[in-house]
Amino acid sequence: MLIVADNLQITNPAIAQAVETMDPEPVRDLVSRCAAAGAGAVDINTGPLARDAESRMTFLVETVESVTDLPLLLDTVNPAALRAGLDAAKNRVIINGFSLEPKKLEQILPLAVEYDVDIIGYLLYPDSQVPSGEAGRMQVAVELFTAFSAAGGDPARLIIDPVIAPVMWQNGTAQDTGVLSVIRGIGELLGTQVRTIAGISNLTTGPGPMDRKRLLERVYLSMLAAAGLDMALMNVFHRESVAVVHACNALLSDRIFTWEWREETRIAGP
Amino acid sequence: MLIVADNLQITNPAIAQAVETMDPEPVRDLVSRCAAAGAGAVDINTGPLARDAESRMTFLVETVESVTDLPLLLDTVNPAALRAGLDAAKNRVIINGFSLEPKKLEQILPLAVEYDVDIIGYLLYPDSQVPSGEAGRMQVAVELFTAFSAAGGDPARLIIDPVIAPVMWQNGTAQDTGVLSVIRGIGELLGTQVRTIAGISNLTTGPGPMDRKRLLERVYLSMLAAAGLDMALMNVFHRESVAVVHACNALLSDRIFTWEWREETRIAGP
C-alpha cells in the first residue's frame, strides 16, 4: 500500500498565501517534509481555483517538481487548471478525479485519455451523493467502469476510490465495512484488475477525541491493506499511521519477511 | 472480537511455584489483573501436568473462579486433568483443544460432547504439523469438522483455530495472509457458521525488535478482526493491542458508533 500525502492543500492558510504570492518556499518545505516522512506520491489539492487557475496550478506543479520526482495527483474540479497541470508536469501524474457527475464525465475524464495518465474514479452517484451501502457502491463501480471504457479509457489507468464514510454518519461503520468488501471484490466484479485508493481522513471527520481518531485510523488502515487497497491518501505527518502502513506492507508482501522492513514507494500500473 | 488472556501459563515461574505449593495468591493476583486489563475469558495453560494432574487443575480452576466469573479455557493435553477441570468448573468452560492427532480425537474430543461444552479445534495435520498454506488449512478444516460431527459434536460448540504462523517462518507471512482467508471463508466452506480463535503470540515468535513485534501484532489484530475472528488469545497486558481490539469492535459493531466505545466481554455461542 502506497502512501499518498494529502498534506498539500489550498485550505492550509500557509499554502493559500504561498499560491497567492507565488512564493515557492512554503510549498517546497512542505513537500520535502512529506517525502522525508514516507510519501510515495503527493496530492496537489488546489480546490476549484476561481482566479488565475492555470498559472497557479502550473506554479504548484513546477514548485513541487523542483523538490521531488514523486508522482503527483492533480486534485481539482477545474478542467482548465487540470490541463495546465498536465502540460506543466514532468513527473508521473494521476488525475484526481472523476465520478458519474456529468460535468466530470464530460470535462475531466477525457483529459485522462488524451494525456494517457492514471485517473481516480469515485464511487459516487451522479449528484455526488455517497451510496449508502456496499451494493450501491458496486452498482456505481459498474456504471463508472462502463463510462470510463466508453470514453476510451484503458482499465490499467483506472484507480477506484470507494469513498470511506465518516464513522459518525448514521450507518458510517457499516458503510466502511462495505468499503472493505468493495476493495476485495472489485476486480472480480469488473472482470479486470483495477487499482484502488481511499481518502483516510474521511473516516474520522467531525468532532471526537484526537487519540481515538488516530487509533481508529491506524486500525482501519490495517484492514484496508489486508483488503488489498493500493494507495492510502492520508496525512503523512501521522507518524504512527505511516509506521502501520509499513508494517502492513511487510506482512502482506511476497518478499521474505525481515524485521528491517523498508517503506514501499513504488506505484503500480502502466 | 473477544480477548482471551493467555497470561496464566505454567511456564511462568511464579505460577509454576504457586501450583507446586498450592498457593492461590499469585494466581488470584494475575487473574484479577487480566480481568481488569480487558480479558473476556481466561486460558488456563497447565501444560501436560505430569504430576498430580487432577488436583492441580482443580486447584487452578477453583482459584481462578474465586476471583472471576469469566469463561475459562482449559488448556491441557492431559485428559485426566481436563476431566478434573470440567468437574470443578462452575464458570463457562471451553476445552482448548483438539486436532486430527489420534490421541486427541480419542481422549479430548469426547469430553466436549460428554460435558456439552465449547471446544477449540486446531487446523493441524494428524502429526501436529502446520499446513503450509490456505488450501491445506481448508482441507484439514473439513476433516476436523467431519471428525467432530462423527463424534456427536454440535457445530455451535466448535471453535476453529486456523493456527497463525510465525512471520519468521520461510513462508510465514503468506500463511498468515491465508489465515485471514480461512477465517473469512470457513463458514461457507463448512456450510455452517463456526466460531474462530487465534493465538496471537505465535505471529512474532522468535528473535526480533520488541517495538516492531508489538506493532505487527496490532496490525494483524486489526486484519483478523476485519476477517471476522471471534476470539483473540493474547497477552492482555499489551495495553496498546487491547486498545486496538476495542477500536476494531467499535468499527465493526452493528451498534451506533460512539467515540466512548466500551470493551466487549460477551462470548458468542450456545
Task: Describe this protein's structure.
The structure is a homodimer of 270-residue chains. By secondary structure, the first copy, chain A, is of the alpha/beta class. Chain A contains ten helices and eight strands. Chain A has an eight-stranded parallel β-barrel, surrounded by four helices. In chain A, strand 2, helix 3 and strand 3 form a beta-alpha-beta unit. The longest helix of chain A is centred in the C-terminal third of the chain and has 19 residues. The model of chain A has no long low-confidence stretch (mean pLDDT 95). Chains A and B meet through helix 8, helix 9 and helix 10 of A and helix 8, helix 9 and helix 10 of B.
Give the SSE layout.
2 copies of one chain form a homodimer.
Chain A (H helix, E strand, L loop, with lengths): L1 E4 L7 H9 L2 H14 L3 E5 L7 H13 L6 E4 L3 H10 L4 E6 L3 H6 L1 H7 L2 E5 L11 H17 L7 E4 L10 H19 L4 E5 L10 H18 L3 E4 L4 H14 L18
How do you describe this structure in short?
2 copies of one chain form a homodimer. Chain A has helices at residues 13-21, 24-37, 53-65, 79-88, 102-107, 109-115, 134-150, 172-190, 210-227, 239-252, and strands at residues 2-5, 41-45, 72-75, 93-98, 118-122, 158-161, 195-199, 231-234.
